[in-house]
User: What shape does this take?
Amino acid sequence: MDINILIADDDSVFRQLICDIMKKKGYKVLQASNGKEAIDLFFSRTDIALCILDVMMPVYDGWEVLEEIRQNSDVPVLMLTALGDEIYEIKGLLEGADDYIAKPFSYPVFIARVEALLRKIKRQLFEKLAVGEISIDRSTHRVWVANEEIFLNNKEYCLLTYLVENRGIVLEREKILKNVWGYDFEGDIRTIDAHVKMLRSKLGFCSNYIKTIRGTGYMFEVSYEKEYSQ
Assistant: This one.
């Protein structure tokens, strides 16, 4: 399963070097040369696992990009900067960055920092998850209800996984739309209701796990659940 990393830096040579390193490690990369491109790229997708942001970028700097991301997502963010003063490191961490590294840096150290940030993401991507009578294999996108496999299209699978990951939490339709369809989705919000209806039909007797919260959205809830990962 691909792990997508967004790399934003206005230094094209340095950016390409980082991209090459990430590709050699088996990651997929998206490149942005300024803060606006970084924001546009990030919010055009729902599958970015890590953002690597340079602080000093044109249009919007790294702090502004970080602020925009943090208002909508908790995706891991690694800040890069030539500013070595620890005051900037503290600023980055306080404003929501997950890690901070000053240029120039040791590439083995850089790789170690990236791998540490992605460890949880990798575990989530490849673990098997069981909730109630539903089992999900994230590495293959296969789903079973009471040990019988059901077949979901990509959006149905993403919707189910998002609901399960946030079980017990009331999710507004707008939030579901942003996290499953993407921030640039131009369709009607009622598309969520149509997909929930189809998903419920495929879940059979487990359809009641998806609760409708009148006037708000949906919540995934199981009165008795058994959860494991491997």
User: Anything to note?
Assistant: Confidence is low (pLDDT under 50) at residues 225-230. Helices lie at 12-24, 35-43, 62-70, 86-94, 107-126, 154-165, 173-181, 190-203. Residues 127-220 form a domain with the Arc Repressor Mutant, subunit A fold (CATH 1.10.10.10).
